[in-house]
């Protein structure tokens, strides 16, 4: 039979308990006679003096020893303004009175309670650890076997031998060891322990507990490449992070690991954490490498274009440091973001009209982006340029005149 209990009625009884009304005791007796152990526990917690002759069934009798947890449960169920009186008697349980199964039942109750009360593990941590200490390794393994990862589940796992853990439980407990390590030590440990990134990511993201969800950010901290679009960690990732200038000249790896290495260096060396030009330097080095190897169009389109979008100041670096003249046309055609180079190139050409590199660059950029503004800027300083260049671009200047 299912009984519906009016929480408001219990609340009214509690507020009237010092009024001397004889009906209160009879009402409490009728509620106790229902035989619901959970209800009896709540009533015992709220009306301990009036129900002194009523015994509280296990596992709640053990739970009664934690006034913090009892207060928390009552306030969550009956009302936040309910303040229970301090309980008499020792806090710890009489070990001889209860067996292991009783302590297991306490943990089962708390684990179920945690699903709707996510901070229960923080209310009285010493008491929970005391209860866990009364449970054998075998029973702990049975207790958590099919449980999702939660703060209480982690608390239990931390008291267990890793040989008793498996699957995602073992992955999580091994992963949490990095919290006590430096970033570099943790980074190495995660790699050497062959952590299952996908399993950990899935577990952290699907969790209903905010405390567990936050572990996803810790996980990403040790896999920075996943922040920048990697589908999975590269097999030789540790070689790359050990020597950030050793990234293979391949589009996908460059797009991911240049930024990932910058992140890694900043985390590893705190003094470089606020160095704004670190990523510019790293990206500029790789752009020069790409441009010095007669790159295929795909490298220009997928890598240099993306690097410029992420860090526009690279345009100035590329223009000032130059690159082979035979790549000018390909660069302009394949890197849409390189249109930002026009004004700077034109300004430099005005100062050095005979510089073949900047002449070629201005010409190709103007042909590719013959906007009225660009043509007008070119025309304003056309008197500084040589006749051959003016002849080649006459069709543009005449069209806008």
What structural keywords apply?
25 helices, elongated, 401 residues, mainly alpha, Symplekin C-terminal domain-containing protein
In brief, what are we looking at here?
This protein has helices at residues 7-15, 23-33, 37-46, 60-63, 67-77, 100-114, 125-133, 137-144, 151-157, 167-175, 183-192, 197-206, 210-213, 215-222, 237-242, 251-268, 278-291, 297-310, 314-321, 328-334, 342-351, 356-368, 372-380, 387-392, 394-400. It is mainly α.
Distance between the termini: 94 Å
Q: Give, in order, the helices and strands.
A: HHHHHHHHHHHHHHHHHHHHHHHHH
What is the mean pLDDT?
86
Query: What is the count of β-strands?
Result: 0
Residue runs with pLDDT of under 50 for 5 or more positions: 89-93
Q: Class by helix and strand content?
A: mainly alpha
Major sheet characteristics:
none
As a whole number of angstroms, the C-alpha radius of gyration is 35 Å
The proportion of residues forming helix, as a percent range, comes to 55-70%
Bin the strand percentage. under 5%
- Gross geometry: elongated
Q: With helices defined by DSSP (H or I, 4 residues minimum), what is the helix count? A: 25
Organism: Encephalitozoon romaleae (strain SJ-2008)
Protein name: Symplekin C-terminal domain-containing protein
């Amino acid at each position: 039979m299912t009984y519906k209990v009016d929480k408001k009625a219990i609340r009214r009884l509690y507020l009237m308990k010092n009024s001397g009304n004889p009906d209160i005791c009879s009402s409490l007796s009728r509620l106790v006679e229902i035989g619901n152990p959970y209800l009896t526990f709540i009533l015992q917690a709220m009306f301990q003096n009036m129900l002194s002759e009523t015994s509280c069934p296990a596992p709640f009798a053990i739970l009664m020893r934690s006034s913090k947890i009892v207060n928390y449960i009552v306030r969550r169920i009956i009302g936040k303004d309910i303040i229970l009186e301090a309980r008499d008697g020792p806090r710890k349980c009489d070990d001889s009175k209860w067996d292991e199964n009783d302590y297991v039942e306490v943990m089962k109750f708390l684990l179920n309670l945690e699903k709707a009360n996510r901070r229960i593990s923080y209310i009285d941590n010493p008491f929970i650890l005391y209860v866990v200490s009364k449970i054998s390794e075998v029973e702990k393994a049975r207790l958590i076997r099919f449980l999702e990862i939660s703060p209480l589940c982690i608390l239990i796992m931390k008291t267990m031998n890793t040989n008793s853990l498996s699957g995602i439980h073992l992955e999580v407990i091994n992963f949490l060891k990095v919290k006590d390590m430096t970033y570099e030590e943790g980074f190495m440990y995660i790699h050497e322990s062959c952590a299952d990134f996908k399993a950990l990511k899935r577990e952290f993201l699907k969790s209903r507990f905010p405390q567990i969800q936050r572990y996803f950010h810790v996980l990403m901290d040790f896999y920075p490449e996943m922040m920048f679009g990697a589908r999975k960690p590269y097999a030789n990732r540790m070689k790359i992070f050990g020597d950030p200038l050793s990234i293979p000249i391949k589009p996908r790896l460059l797009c991911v690991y240049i930024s990932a290495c910058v992140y890694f260096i900043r985390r590893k060396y705190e003094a470089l954490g606020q160095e704004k030009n670190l990523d510019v330097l790293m990206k500029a080095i790789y752009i020069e490498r790409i441009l010095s190897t007669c790159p295929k169009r795909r490298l220009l389109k997928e890598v240099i274009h993306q690097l410029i979008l992420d860090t526009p100041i690279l345009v100035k670096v590329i223009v000032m440091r130059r690159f082979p003249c035979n790549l000018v046309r390909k660069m302009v055609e394949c890197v849409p973001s390189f249109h930002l180079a026009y004004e700077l190139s034109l300004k430099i050409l005005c100062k050095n009209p005979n510089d073949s590199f900047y002449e070629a660059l201005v010409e190709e950029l103007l042909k590719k982006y013959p906007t009225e503004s660009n043509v007008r800027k070119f025309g304003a300083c056309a008197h500084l340029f040589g006749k051959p260049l003016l002849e080649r671009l006459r069709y543009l200047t005449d069209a806008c005149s």
